Amino acid sequence: MTATDPWVELLTGDRSLLDRTSTAERVADVLRQRIIEGGLPPGTRLSEGSAGRALSVSRNTLREAFRLLVHERLLVHEFHRGVFVRVLSVDDVQDLYRTRRLLEVGAIRCAGTAAPEQIAAVVAEVQAAVQAAAEERWLDVGTANMRFHQAITALACSPRLDEIMRQVVAELRLGFHVMSRPREFHEPYIVLNRGITDLLSRGEFGEAERLLETYLSEAEAQLVQAYRQMAR
Amino acid sequence: MTATDPWVELLTGDRSLLDRTSTAERVADVLRQRIIEGGLPPGTRLSEGSAGRALSVSRNTLREAFRLLVHERLLVHEFHRGVFVRVLSVDDVQDLYRTRRLLEVGAIRCAGTAAPEQIAAVVAEVQAAVQAAAEERWLDVGTANMRFHQAITALACSPRLDEIMRQVVAELRLGFHVMSRPREFHEPYIVLNRGITDLLSRGEFGEAERLLETYLSEAEAQLVQAYRQMAR
DNA sequence: AGGTACTGAATTGTTGAACAATCCTGCAAG
DNA sequence: CTTGCAGGATTGTTCAACAATTCAGTACCT
Fold first, then answer.
1. Exposure pattern of A93-129 as b/e (b: 16+ CB <10 Å)?
2. What is this structure's pTM?
3. Is nucleic acid strand D under 7 Å from B80's C-beta?
4. In this model, does residue A216 exceed pLDDT 70?
5. Cβ contacts of A156 on chain B, cutoff 8 Å
6. Does A106 touch chain B (CB under 8 A)?
7. Quick check: B47 CB within 7 A of strand D?
8. How far is residue B203's CA from residue A146's CA, in Å, rounded to a whole number?
9. Do A156 and B98 touch (CB under 8 A)?
10. Which residue, A209, B82, B89, B126, is the most exposed by fewest CB within 10 angstroms?
């Protein structure tokens, strides 16, 4: 019986690396990247014709990619009108922070039972943010910031929660485009992040949870204010 | 200025009712229904040819529907091999309960600030389960049970969390098919659900939270055991 | 001027066919 | 019992066509 050979189990995990991706998925990947980078600002219309010609893919393939991104809420689809890069409303922003609070606070409660590497991963993202700030790469600071929060969510050890958080973060970045000064928006959070990791390393989990919660509420308030200001 | 007329805002909400759905979405709806009902058991292969002929839709449209359900994790897509109804592993079941615990426990913490109608909605689902049990409609008991948990999640007042929970529940129902006796599996939870609603009505939120947590862990253990038993 | 109805162009929704790439099955050979 | 090799079947992707719908402009009426 060769089915129980030890190397078989080893290789089964590598199966995913072998899975080539379809064109539609790759198209979705590049669109997703452009959207969260801001190259395709919220409200932009993506017509099947132009986008298909630009990327040299057929309409059908492009439509498959659109469906994926619509499902991720990065695009909205209006029947017979086409797809548009999502425009976040204030309600959306508030709901996203509501979701984040629940996810991240719930996850940080697992910090007590988490593996040391997971805590280390959180710390590493703060370091990345510090590094980026030192080199004045403010957009990278924002990216590291988001990865910090994903690392916190990862404390729950749940692939599904990780995936959900990935989507929430991607959607939230749509809203960050309203912040005209990335430095002023992202920089202050570095010290807060470090505060959280310090508490985590010291095992003061309850305190870390509280700090995270106020942190998120503060960030929400700031973003909502920027939104209202822009509406005028 | 007619833009500020009071009825304008009223009607904008009805816009969604007007949005006809695409064929792909309707196809996805019927497939989703068949899957969670068990008509298409886990592992079933859905070939584009047969399914397309059966539903009288073109391959392209069908593929769009498949993409949607793959994204919801109800189907898995293997490159150049086709789509299959997902087979939940034990790991999946455990991760789903991990996710549920975080979502539901987090949501029930908002019970203190929730509107009375929301509590009433939770109670109503227990009633529905009791009613279904009295008429020995055990599958409906299971459905009411799931709706009970969705009502709990709704306490968080977050459309995104509601959507996430909807997906989690749909995915979890894939796992319920291993339970050969729906009555023995679903019936015992009715009394637990009532216990939770009683605590909620009496304002003992902390106690309700604890009960919910043990509830979920117990259900998980039961399902996991059934899974392992079946693997033999 | 301001609102209404209509027309034609452009875009999306959906289907069908075509071809390449890949997988699966069965069979023959070692 | 494994390996290698057809042949058929299925999927991946593109293209072309047509129906349904939206959009922009225009003429019309009051």
1. bbbbbbbbbbbbbbbbbbbeebeeebbebbbbbbebb
2. 0.91
3. yes
4. yes
5. 98, 102
6. yes
7. yes
8. 37
9. yes
10. B89
pLDDT of residue A6: 60
Does residue A151 belong to the interface with chain B, where contact is any CB pair within 8 Å? no
Domain ranges of chain A: 6-85, 90-231
User: Å from A1 (CA) to D1 (C1')?
Assistant: 13
Residue of A nearest to B162 (CA): A99
* pLDDT surpassing 70 at residue A4: no
Q: Work out the pLDDT band at A16, boundaries 50, 70, 90.
A: low
Distances (CA, A) of B160 to A9, A29, A47, B5: 37, 22, 27, 30
Nucleotide in closest CA–C1' contact with A78: C12
Predicted confidence band at B108 (pLDDT cuts at 50, 70, 90)?
very high
Number of helices (H), then strands (E), in chain B: 10, 3
Q: What percent of chain B has pLDDT over 70?
A: 91
Please say if the pLDDT value at position A8 is more than 60. Answer: no
B-facing residues of A in 166-225 (CB < 8 A) are 168
- Give the one of A22, A72, A160 whose C-beta lies nearest to B79's C-beta: A22
Which chain B residues are Cβ-neighbours of A78 within 8 angstroms?
Answer: 19
Task: Write the DSSP symbol of residue A20.
Answer: P
Question: Does A60 lie at the interface with B, CB-CB under 8 angstroms?
Answer: yes
The predicted-structure confidence for A91-128, as pLDDT tens digits, reads as follows 999 999 999 999 999 999 999 999 999 999 999 999 99
Q: B6-85 — its CATH code?
A: 1.10.10.10
Sheet holding A82-85, edge to edge: A45-46, A82-85, A75-78
Q: Do A160 and B105 touch (CB under 8 A)?
A: no
Burial class, A9, CB count within 10 angstroms (exposed 0-12 / middle 13-18 / buried 19+): exposed
Q: Which residue of A has its CA nearest to B97?
A: A158
Which tens digit of pLDDT belongs to each residue from A118-150? 999 999 999 999 999 999 999 899 999 999 999
Return the residue in B32, B57, B67 with the most chain A beta carbons within 10 A, the one to mutate for interface testing.
B67
Average pLDDT over chain B, rounded to an integer: 90
pLDDT-derived band at B10 (thresholds 50, 70, 90) equals low
Distance CA A127, CA A148 (A): 10
CA distance A86 to chain B (A): 15
- Give domain B90-231's CATH architecture: Up-down Bundle (1.20)
Write the CA distances from A230 to A35, A121, B172, B185, integer angstroms: 20, 36, 42, 54
In DSSP notation, A45-81 reads EE-HHHHHHHHT--HHHHHHHHHHHHHTTSEEEETTT
Q: How far is CA A122 from the centre of its chain?
A: 15
Mean pLDDT of A157-168: 97
